[in-house]
């Protein structure tokens, strides 16, 4: 066996398929782009959907990649098995309507067995095939696989619902008798069974059917190849590792964790080894996910990150690590993966800062979780059930990050069990909620070949001109059919030449009109999108009949286009200004460029202050007033990056890119339209800034005329305020407001003093009304106060004066009801708790509450129930 590192293995795979004419696709962001069916990119093919369903035709139908992926459907198994991971790399080769089974199988065998490449022993390789797929079986035999190394398996059919599907062939590596964990006669002891000896290393899917909406399977117009080889598994074979974790992909993190622990070593205790593995795995997933722009939160991707961090922290405590530590592994992950993912190490300081912040937050939560768990343990002992129910176990898991295993460890020492079945029910409910939240969004669209073979030349000339005086119609589509001509109504057309911009990169499509050469209006352009082969596909409202090869004049609405240009150039200025103010970690997370406004989403961990926004706005306007030239050059992506151009990580760029420079201030990859000088933008004004998700902020802004109108509106509003305040001039408004604030504070102070005086008078009266019930002295009644603060003050007075054993006061404040219960300290020692009493009476006001044994409070929405609550308090004391 060759002695290869993980980096060498990855590169060897990619080099092999490059030698077979494949284009190496860079690993895409873990955050899916325009794919609501996925929370994470979970496979190599997930980034290829647009090619397989025909919505985009790749420049080269042969593609290969090493795609970072995240799967989170069985996080609980990570660390406990040899192969489960949250983040992993999927090596893959793909054919989009090009080669099929013979080539895929021949090349797979060559890569695996040729001494030039992997050089594995052919005798150690086994293949499974779908029983009805005899073509695949014959192809394996043809390359030299012995018949007894080919196994037919009914489940070798790849199908995820509507869309491409087909049989597949899995490849297994025999790790030898030393890895055999089953008896010789065990029915699972074969390649493809549930065992440790035969390791699945590659799956080749032959996509040859469309799974139709009616459940039928129809042959695909273009057959595809989709393969997946888990890098971690292949590395474990090359490095003869017992599991994926004893490889160079994970051991550096495990060794660093050993160092942080100080005393515990990997390999000493199987139970503690699980913790090492969890930390190593989760540190990779967390680092990559945050590096790609996801941040910890309570929902979606952010919830997954938070859950992984908390699980790792809990396992760190099992190893004796106290305080934040996970953030120290970020740079280790970056160094391990630097060869193929240099950006991770470059961002390591930023990622580590976020991880440490989340660790600090969880360490505080952990204390609250342990407090709840101890209370639950006490309650189960008191009621003698000795069982933590499933709902409570799930709350510990979902709210406080306690894995059910951790809850079991704590409770077992107390002789208490956990309702694991109930916990699983709650987990399934959560999964159902997640599935419903995703809805019925398709995982992969049905293959549509209508425009795949339409390769008529079509040139976009809108960068330099907004009118084309004479061009031909090359393609007409009506009702999803190619036609030779169209009457009035809606249609889609491709022209030989067009000035209309197709929507892309956040910039909306151009609008305008189509005329015949005599100047008569023929159609209105409603929308423009890219066809699969890149042409600008115009959606039009036809007024006069059109036919293939007819000649027309195309005119873009110049005002609409000009306003879009201004806003697009402003987004570039805004992007760089945000980096200047918040740091280089800030990345564009989306944009929309309309004629009337612009919207810009960006990643930022933390709040954005008004002062920050003023700085950003000032920087952008300074560049506008500086009259910077806006220039564009076309080059290749590598040259563009060397020029310093910013590239969106979520975008894939072709062989030629446009680099847009705004003076020396901004340089970005961009295919959109721009002004020729920043002075044309006129003015930039931010209208709003808000958070739209974990670590993602949104700015909405206007430029030019719209900015002037917005500021004019603000000025008119200020004038109206000045009139209402009777301020002689606008500059006097702040002073007038300050005067009003002083008056308000003075009135509030007087009101508070009057309320306190009134409350004191009521207290003198109510504290005299002592009831003797069941041997206890009770004071209970309603009072008029301004809020819960004054109720607490009355309770403090009651306690200082020692008026009775128990106090119950109620008050209506506006349309709400407030209750407070106080119990003398000596009485609480007898088992009488304020919290128990408040829980008994708060339903009368449609509320709930709690507190300490000697003081509890509640709020409710039913003030008319206060008298009933006071009465219920007397009954509760009577029942003691």
From TrEMBL:
Keyword tRNA-binding belongs to the record: yes
Top-level taxon: Bacteria
Domain named Alanyl-transfer RNA synthetases family profile: residues: 4-713
Its EC number(s): 6.1.1.7
Catalytic activity: tRNA(Ala) + L-alanine + ATP = L-alanyl-tRNA(Ala) + AMP + diphosphate
UniProt keyword list: Aminoacyl-tRNA synthetase, ATP-binding, Coiled coil, Cytoplasm, Ligase, Metal-binding, Nucleotide-binding, Protein biosynthesis, RNA-binding, tRNA-binding, Zinc
Cofactor: how and how many bound: Binds 1 zinc ion per subunit.
Any one GO CC term of the record: cytosol
Cofactors demanded by this protein: Zn(2+)
Lipid biosynthesis keyword on record: no
Chief localization: cytoplasm
Domain comment in the entry: Consists of three domains; the N-terminal catalytic domain, the editing domain and the C-terminal C-Ala domain. The editing domain removes incorrectly charged amino acids, while the C-Ala domain, along with tRNA(Ala), serves as a bridge to cooperatively bring together the editing and aminoacylation centers thus stimulating deacylation of misacylated tRNAs.
Function field: Catalyzes the attachment of alanine to tRNA(Ala) in a two-step reaction: alanine is first activated by ATP to form Ala-AMP and then transferred to the acceptor end of tRNA(Ala). Also edits incorrectly charged Ser-tRNA(Ala) and Gly-tRNA(Ala) via its editing domain.
Family: Belongs to the class-II aminoacyl-tRNA synthetase family.
The protein's name: Alanine--tRNA ligase
